[in-house]
Amino acid sequence: MGLKIEGEAIKDYNIRGEISVRELIEQMRDAWGFTAEKIASGVDILKSMFADEGCVKFLSFPGSIVATGVRGVIKEMVKQGLADVIITTCGALDHDLARSWKKYYRGSFDFDDRELHRRGINRLGNILVPNESYGLIIEEKMQELMSELWKEGRREISSKELCWEMGKRICAEDSILYWASKRQVPVYVPGVVDGAVGYHIWLFSQDHNFKIDLLRDEKELNDIIFDSEKTGAIVIGGGISKHHVIWWNQFRGGLDYAVYITTAVEWDGSLSGARVREAISWGKVKEAAKHVTIEGDATVILPLMVAAILSEENVKRKHLG
Questions:
Q1: pTM (2 d.p.)
Q2: Shortest CA distance to 233 belongs to which of 269, 276, 267, 192?
């Protein structure tokens, strides 16, 4: 006697002629590919989160993806009002600033790294970052910024204030920080000294009594958390930016919405690989939260999801009005 299975049957993709990203995402739900269904589910959760007017939306990401074209996706999310609070790494500031002035180039994971080093080219995965496109331009622009702030009488700054000043003074209009500053979206960088931007602040402080006040950032995060009716998060990758989002949200009983995108494994106990269900055990995500963990490359997945969401007219009207 055969096993009776309740539920809907898997359908094939129907890719004929022109198809919108939103239609493709809709088909993922029925085609039930191994990760495809999770992407469709993630889009549904994010649409619910964005439609929830009482929800404060957190976005966290590592610096590496800002070296890729996904920088433009994150910029658009900030510009279109899809993020209320950003928590990221110093590397994100480095790449956002550097790419405002210089170019990064397409490369290969298989390039000879010894040869690249001799030529003054740094490899970030399959992205090539010449010295003049990174260290040199960041040094020039950060020393310019720090000197301006000092002349204006600024002796102390939080990471949020630093990000807004960078966006306003030394980043181009195609940057994440420019739009964060323009839209007044707070950007917090708890590990701000772990990168070129932080290094140059430290270097400036060697002959100027200048300080970064990270505790002011923490006070603001505390106020955001306890003033929020609900919270949700898009968490790309892991590390300190991911942990800082879920760490603070545990104090209000956990996130109400959570979408993780990660390539890390969970069997080594890493924070980066931990699925949403593990955060539930810590009270960092609510038991009743709408959540999904999507395993895969954010440089592929995030553009698909954001394009599908921005194609929804109700989302556009809500955040652009």
A1: 0.94
A2: 276
